[in-house]
Specification:
- By secondary structure, this protein is of the alpha+beta class.
- The chain folds into three domains: 37 residues; 80 residues, Translation Initiation Factor IF3, CATH 3.30.110.170; 104 residues, Alpha-Beta Plaits.
- Helix content is 39%, strand content 35%.
- A four-stranded antiparallel sheet has the order 3-4-2-5. The protein has a three-stranded antiparallel sheet with strand order 1-7-6.
- Helix 2 packs antiparallel against helix 3.
Length: 243
């Protein structure tokens, strides 16, 4: 009987301890939730302008012949000619890359008969980074003359935008904090610590599209291509705890 009472006492003690720990954990969670439930958010925007320091050109070499091998061989020869031309312009190997390479069968469709393969087309897309902006127009003119069938896009960019993003971010945070300080007095609240931060970026330039037909001279120096300025925009949201 004594052992039975000891067992009941042990079970009761263990249960009380477990309940106490559970209640303490729940109380702590409620307190922490209360601390973060009352919050308010403020958004800010920061902008910075900079002149682009590189140009990126995307162009394609499109070759079509009767056989796949002949199309690839012809395309390879044109690709080498183009690569040699780009290197003559002072463009390094690291700034010349193949961005896409596809082989497509070309069909003919006789009436009331099955489609027949009449040849193959190779489409190689190359992307070139030009660090000397004074050479952009001449390079565009030259790649078309050297065998590029299609200029897909041209964009003026900033090679390393991280420092500019940091500047725009600092402006955005300052803007959000100014709003918070002003509204704190107007709303009659007291702000605590920042409990959340989010960020989004925008303002990067889109590509400039270029067609062979626009360069009527083809050898007269190429088209006029002003680079302008690029705008980097950072938007932030600061979430404050309300005391």
């Amino acid at each position: 009987m004594n052992n039975y009472y000891k067992y009941l006492t042990w079970v009761g003690t263990f249960t009380l301890v477990a309940l106490s720990l559970f209640l303490m954990a729940m109380t702590n969670q409620v307190v922490n939730t209360a601390k973060t439930a009352n919050t308010i958010s403020f958004s800010g925007e920061g902008q910075t302008l900079a002149k682009p320091d590189i140009a990126v050109i995307s162009f394609s070499i499109i070759t079509e012949t009767a056989t796949s091998k002949a199309a690839q061989d012809d395309n390879s020869a044109k690709s080498k000619t183009l690569a040699d031309f780009l290197k003559e312009q002072g463009i390094e190997d690291k700034d010349i890359k193949t961005a896409g390479y596809n082989i497509y069968p070309q069909y003919r469709y006789p009436r009331d008969e099955k489609p027949e393969i009449r040849g193959y087309q190779v489409n190689q897309t190359m992307e070139v980074k030009i660090r000397d902006l004074d050479k952009v127009s001449g390079v565009l003119d030259g790649v078309v003359s050297a065998g590029a069938n299609q200029i897909n896009s041209l964009s003026f960019q900033i090679d390393n935008p991280d420092l500019l993003r940091e500047t725009a971010r600092a402006k955005a945070i300052e803007n959000a904090k100014m709003k918070a300080n002003g509204l704190e007095k107007q709303l009659g609240i007291r702000l605590g610590r920042i409990v959340n931060f989010s960020e989004s970026a925008g303002g990067f330039p889109g590509p400039v599209f270029y067609e062979k037909s626009l360069n009527a001279g083809m050898g007269g120096g190429g088209p006029a291509l002003p680079a302008g300025e690029n705008e980097i925009v950072i938007n932030v949201t600061l979430t404050y705890q309300i005391k």
